[in-house]
Amino acid sequence: MSVDTQQAPPRLDTDELRTLDAHWRAANYLAVGQIYLMANPLLTEPLRPEHVKPRLLGHWGTSPGLNLVYTHLNRVIKARDLNALCVWGPGHGGPAVLANSWLEGSYSETYPDVTRDAAGMARLFKQFSFPGGVPSHVAPETPGSIHEGGELGYALSHAYGAALDNPDLLVACVIGDGEAETGPLAASWHSNKFLDPVHDGAVLPILHLNGYKIANPAVLARLPEPELDELLRGYGHDPIQVTGDDPDAVHHTLAEAFDTALDRIAALQRAAREEGATERPRWPVIVLRTPKGWTGPAEVDGLPVAGTWRAHQVPLAAVRDNPEHLRELEAWLRSYRPEELFDADGRPRPDVLACVPDGTRRLGATPHANGGLLLRDLPLPDLDTYAVPVDKPGATRHEPTRVLGDLLQDVMAATAGRRDFRLVGPDETASNRLQAVYEATGKAWQARTLQVDEHLDRHGRVMEILSEHTCQGWLEGYLLTGRHGLFSCYEAFAHIVDSMVNQHIKWLRVTRRLPWRAPIASLNYLLTSHVWRQDHNGFSHQDPGFVDHILNKSPEAVRVYFPPDANTLLSVADHALRSRDYVNVVVAGKQPCFDWITMDQARVHCARGAGVWEWAGTEDGTREPDVVLACAGDVPTQEVLAAAQLLRRHLPDLAVRVVNVVDIARLMPAGEHPHGMSDFEYDGLFTTDKPVVFAYHGYPWLIHRLAYRRTGHRHLHVRGYKEIGTTTTPFDMVVRNDLDRYRLVMDVIDRVPGLAVRAAGVRQRMEDARLRHHDWIRTHGTDLPEVADWFWGG
Amino acid sequence: MSVDTQQAPPRLDTDELRTLDAHWRAANYLAVGQIYLMANPLLTEPLRPEHVKPRLLGHWGTSPGLNLVYTHLNRVIKARDLNALCVWGPGHGGPAVLANSWLEGSYSETYPDVTRDAAGMARLFKQFSFPGGVPSHVAPETPGSIHEGGELGYALSHAYGAALDNPDLLVACVIGDGEAETGPLAASWHSNKFLDPVHDGAVLPILHLNGYKIANPAVLARLPEPELDELLRGYGHDPIQVTGDDPDAVHHTLAEAFDTALDRIAALQRAAREEGATERPRWPVIVLRTPKGWTGPAEVDGLPVAGTWRAHQVPLAAVRDNPEHLRELEAWLRSYRPEELFDADGRPRPDVLACVPDGTRRLGATPHANGGLLLRDLPLPDLDTYAVPVDKPGATRHEPTRVLGDLLQDVMAATAGRRDFRLVGPDETASNRLQAVYEATGKAWQARTLQVDEHLDRHGRVMEILSEHTCQGWLEGYLLTGRHGLFSCYEAFAHIVDSMVNQHIKWLRVTRRLPWRAPIASLNYLLTSHVWRQDHNGFSHQDPGFVDHILNKSPEAVRVYFPPDANTLLSVADHALRSRDYVNVVVAGKQPCFDWITMDQARVHCARGAGVWEWAGTEDGTREPDVVLACAGDVPTQEVLAAAQLLRRHLPDLAVRVVNVVDIARLMPAGEHPHGMSDFEYDGLFTTDKPVVFAYHGYPWLIHRLAYRRTGHRHLHVRGYKEIGTTTTPFDMVVRNDLDRYRLVMDVIDRVPGLAVRAAGVRQRMEDARLRHHDWIRTHGTDLPEVADWFWGG
C-alpha cells in the first residue's frame, strides 16, 4: 500500500481538516512555547528577551511529527471509539506529548496546578527542562506514557508487551528513524511472530522518518523507498507510506493511512477471532515521511534549518541576545495564529478540541498507561504443595528451578482465564528446567510449525526469542500495563539488558514518588545456569556481575536474593511475585542441589534474609564462635557446609558458626537500603572481632562494598568468583577461584588466632586434596568421587 | 538469485565433488570424535564404553553446516587465491572449526603437541570440553578466529570491522539463525551502508538456517522463503538461496552459490575501484538451509533427531551406559568411512586435503585473525602542539574533548594513507566536540546524500550509527585484525555494550596467555557527556556505572582514567592510543573546564596516576595535613578546589592537602591490580589517620571497594553520584548528590576533630549558600552567578 500525497483523494471534509490542523497548530505552538518561553505565553505583548528562558534546552526537531500523530490518533480514537495507548519512541519528544496532554485536559487532571488556561500554560512552558520541572523526554511524569524516550531502542518491544493479553487495545508506536538503527529496535520488529491475534491486541508501528538523528541522516530515511518497503515486508508488515511537506495534503493522506491501517487490523482480528483464521497476519505499518522541525524556521543565519539536522535541537539559539533571532521566534510562534487557537483566558477553543476523545479514551488518560490501576494480585498457590520434604538437612537433592517450575505451572493454570501472567526468556525455559509450565500453556508462536515441534502454541503465554532485549522489552511493557511476569535468563547474559534494566529502575524510582502512579508488579529475574555451573559452556558464560550492576541503583527499588536450595527458592519466588515496584533478582541453580531446610524454616529464613544455621555449625549456646563461615548462593553454601564438616572432623574443638545470607542487601547498613541490618543485628550474627570467612556467589568485593561500615569489617575475608573461568568440571571451577571447601578450611586455619601451628597438618591435608583433585580431573574429566558423591547429612 | 537444488546444473566435476565431500566427511568425523571420544580415535578397534568421555558436553547440531561452509570456502580460496577470513558466529561451533584447522594443518602449527596424525587426533578429541582443554565455542584459542561464539550477536559487526580498510580481504561470516534473532545482529545488517567498496574489503554473510536454536524453531527459518528474501533485500543484499539435504546436490549448489557471490563481489569492487561507480553496491548474501545435525542419527530412542532441535547438543546421550547408543555412535562414526579419509597413521589422505589452500591462505593461518602480527604503532604527534598553556592553575578554561579533537584530527591526517585508525560513535562525534576530525576525514556513508549533509564521505573513517552495539562490534573487529581506534560515547549509554565489552575483556585475558597471539591495540572508550553534565537530558542520561562494571573484570586488561582537565586528557589519550591488549576507559567532560596543570605537569601526574596538588592545598612542607581533600573526575576536581578555596578563606589555619586521582586503579592494593599502589605510597598520599573527604565522579562505594584494605580506610568519606538525577542546572546536580563545594566544606568540618564547634558558623554559611542556590535556580533556571562565574586562580 502506498498512499502518496500527489494521488490521494481528499478524505477529510473541510471542517475536519480545519479542526485537525487547528489541533496540530495548537500543539506545535505549545511545544515551541515550552522550549522557549518563561512568560508571555499567549504573546499578548510583543516578545521581549526576558520572556525567554536563559537556558534553551529543548529539542524541536521531532515535535511537529509527534504532534501530527497525536492529532490523528485523536481523530481515529474518537471516530472509532478505540481503546488506545501510544508508545512515543523518539528522544526529546516531551514538548509534543506534554502539549497534547495539556490540550486534551489529562495534564491538568494529573497535575491540577497546571490548569488549562493562560496561568497553566505559563506553568507548562516554564517547567519544561527547568530546575524542579519536567524532563525533555517523554518520561514517567508524562500522563499516558509507559515509555521513557531518553535511551532509545525499546519502543516497539514495549508496545508489544502492552498489547499482549489486551485483545481490545490498540497500541500505536511511534518509532523515530534514529531509534530504528538500534539493535533492540531492529530485533523487535519480529515480535509480530509472537502476537496472538485472538488474545492479544494490535500494535500499529508508525515509523517516523524525519530524516536525521543528532547530526547525521538516518539510515532508513536514506533507503530508496522500494528498499525500505521490502525491509518492512520482510519484517512481516504491510507498509503504508505517507510522504509530504504540505500540511493539508499530509492531513488527508495520513487520515487515509490510519483508516486503511485500522480497517485492516479490524479485518485481521475478525478473521482470527470469528472466522478461525490461523495464518500469521500481515499487520500494517505506517511510514510517515515529514520534514524534521517542520513548520519551524526555514533558515537561520543564512543556513537551512527546517528539514535538516540543524532542526534537531533549538533552531534559534541566541534569542535573548540576538534581536533578529528574537524577531524570528516571535514570527514563528505567531505563524500558528495562537489567537485562533486559544481564547483570551488561554483556553483552547472548541475547534482545537474537536478531535479530542473523551475520558479514558484520551491517550493521556488511559488506565493502561498507569497499569497499577488495572493490576490484580496474582493467584499464588500454597507453597507447601511444592515444598520438598526435608527430614534432615542435606540428605536429599532437588533441582531448585524444576521445583519452581511446578509452582509456575500452577500459576499459569490459575491465570488461564485472566491471562495476566507471562514467562519470558531467550529460548531457555526448558534449559533452565522450568518446562513444567508447558503442561499449562505453550510457547507463543505464530510462524510456521512442523510436526516435530513441541509446545508451540498460537495462544501460549511463554515467550521465547533469542533476544534478551526483546524479552526484557516485552516484559516491561506487560508489567507497565498492569500484569505480572518472570524473566528467566542465563546469569552471564543478563548483562545484555544492563542498560534496559537501568532505565526501568529509574522509571520505578520516579513513579514511586508520583502519587497518581499506582504500583505495578515487580520485574522479576530468575538468573539460573549461573557462573558455577557453566563449567561446560566455559569462560564466556561465566559472569555473576549483574547483581553488582543492580545494587548500584536506587536501593528502594532493587532486591537481590540467593536462595540456597529448592524450598528457599520457592519462598523467595513467592515473595517476588507478590511484590510491587521492585526489580527482584533471584539467583538460583538448576542443577541438583542439597535440600537444606524445610518449607517452614525457609519461610522464616527468607523473611529474615540472613541467619545462623545452628545445625551446620557447632552452636550449643554455651560459647562464642571462634570463626564465622558465611555463605550466599547455592554453590558457596554447599562448599561452606562441606568445610564445616571438614572442620568438625579435623578440628573438633573449634567453635564454628555458619551464617547463610539469602537477601544480600541485609549486609548493607540500615540507612542505605530498606533491607539493611542494624549494626546490632549484624554484630550479633557476624560478631565484631571474630574472623568471618564469607563464601559468596559473585565477585567478592561486592560483599566488602556492602559491609565496609561494619565494626567487624576488618575481620571479613571474602571468597568468590575472581574472573577465572574455563571449560572444566564443576568442582574445578570453585577450586580455581579459591571458593572450595578445602580452601575455606585453609582460610579458617590461617585466620583463627593460634590455629596456624596447631592445624598445620590439617592445612597440608587440604592442600593435598586440592592437588589430588587437579590430577584426577585431567585424566578422568569428572570430579573426584569424594567430591562428586559428597554427602552432608546422610 | 535463487539457486535451488532441484534445478541447478552440476558445476563440480566428479573429482572435485569427491574430494570436497571427503573433506566434509573428515571434518564431520572429527567433530563427532571431539564430542564423544577420549580413545580409539580411528576406530581401529570396536568402540567400547571406556573410549567414550564420561561427560558429553559438545554440541553437534551446528557442526555439519560449519564444516560444509569451511570446506567450500577452502575450495574458492584455493581456486581464486583469495585472501580470506571467516567469522564463525554460531554458538558451540568449536568442534567444526577445530576439525578443519586440524585438517588443514594450522592447528598443529599453532599447537605442535596436537600433531596431524593418530596421536594428535586422540589429543584433539580428548581436549575438547575437557578439563585443561579447549572450549566448546569457537574461542581465542581457535586458530583463525577473531570471534568467540559464546555470547551471540556480534558476528556480522565483527566481520565488517575486519573488512574495513582491508581492500583485498574477503570476510565470510556465518550467522546462525539463533544469533540472527538478537538485537546486535539485527542492527548490524545495515553495516553495508558504511562499507566503502574502494578502500574496504568485502563481507559475505552466510545465513545458516538449520532451523532451530536450543529448543525452539528459529524465527528466520520459519519465514516463507519470499518473506525472508524481502527482508534480506530490504537490508540491501542480494540473496542467494541454497536449500537441501542431499549432500551431493548441496555441494553442487553451494559451490555455484559461492562462485556467483564471489563473481558479483569482484564485479562490484571493480566497478567502484576501476570504473568510478558510486552507487551503493547490493552485496550478495548466501542463505544456506540444511538440516540441523545433518548426517547424524536420524532417530534416537524412537524420536526424530537429525533435522530437529533434538540434534542441538549430544544426539546420543547415554553412550557409556546404553549399548544401543554405543552401537549407534559407532555406526554414525563409521558412516563417514574414516578408513577412506585417514591413513593408518591417522594422517588425512590426499583426497581429503585436495581443497585445502596453502600457507597463510588457510583460514586457520591468516594473519588477519592474529591482528597483532599486522599492527603498526600509531603515528602520534607531539602533545605539546595541542597542549593548552597554563600560566597558573584555574585561570583559563577549555573544553577538554575539543582539545583532544585537534589531536585526533592529526592522527586521522597522519593515517590517511595507512588507513589504520577509525573513530566510532553513535552519532555523537560532534556532540562530543571532536568535530575537528572532519578536517581530516569524513563520516563513512554509502547511502543517499543530500545537499544539506555535512562531512558525509564515501571514504571517511569516522563511523557513526545510532547503535552502540554496532559501533562496538565494528571497532572490535577492526582492532582484532590489527588496527587502532577510539569509541566516543555518552557515559550512561556505554552500559548498552556492557555484555560486549565483557566478552572482549575475556578474549584479551585468554589471548594474553597464548604465546602465539600477538598483542593488539587497546579498545579505547572516551566517555564524555557524563553524568554531571547531563543536567539538560535528565535522569535517563545519568549513569556513571560503566567503570564499576569494567573494574569487576580481569585487572590485567582494564584501565580507567579520570583526567581532570584538557592537558591531562591529552596525556591519558596518548597513553591509551599507544597501549596494547587493554580496555581503556577515559571519562572526560566536553564542557568548558578549568585548565589546572601544564602539559609537562600533566605527563608526570598521569604517569603517577595520583598525586598531591601542592598549589591547591596549604602544603608548605612544615606540617601534616589536618584533612585530605581527594578528587577523581573533572567536576569533582572543580568542587574540591572550590572547597579548598572556601576552607582557605574561612578556616585559614586548617592544613588541607588536595590529592587528585587520574588512574583510579591506583587506589587498589598493589597485589590486586598492576597499577595498584603499595600501602607505603597510599599512606604517604592519604595518611593513615587523617580524615579523607573524597569527591568521586561516580558511585561512591566504588572508592570503598577499591580502598577497603588500606589502613586509613575508616577515615575515608566518599561523595559521588547517588542515583539522584533530574533535569536541572549543572551545579544543582552536584548539590543534590552532596558533591558540591559547600557540602565538602561541611564534611571537613564534621570530620576534623575539634572543628565542629569552632567552625559552626562557617558550616551554617555553607548551608545557607546551598539554600540560596536552591531558591535561585527555581526562579532563574540558571546557576547562581557566584557559582557559574566562580574562578579559582584568577
Automatic annotation (TrEMBL), chains A, B:
Cofactor: thiamine diphosphate
Domain (Xylulose 5-phosphate/Fructose 6-phosphate phosphoketolase N-terminal): residue spans on this chain: 13-373
EC code(s) of this entry: 4.1.2.-
Record InterPro entries: Phosphoketolase (IPR023962), THDP-binding (IPR029061), Transketo_C/PFOR_II (IPR009014), Xul5P/Fru6P_PKetolase (IPR005593), Xul5P/Fru6P_PKetolase_C (IPR018969), Xul5P/Fru6P_PKetolase_CS (IPR019790), Xul5P/Fru6P_PKetolase_N (IPR018970), Xul5P/Fru6P_PKetolase_ThDP_BS (IPR019789)
Xylulose 5-phosphate/Fructose 6-phosphate phosphoketolase C-terminal domain residues: 590-792
Swiss-Prot/TrEMBL keywords: Lyase, Thiamine pyrophosphate
One annotated GO biological process: carbohydrate metabolic process
Claim: Membrane is one of the keywords in the record: no
GO MF annotation, one: aldehyde-lyase activity
Taxonomic superkingdom: Bacteria
Pfam family, one: XFP_C
Family matches, as HAMAP family: Phosphoketolase
Family, per entry: Belongs to the XFP family.
Name of this chain's protein: Probable phosphoketolase
Organism, as annotated: Streptomyces actuosus
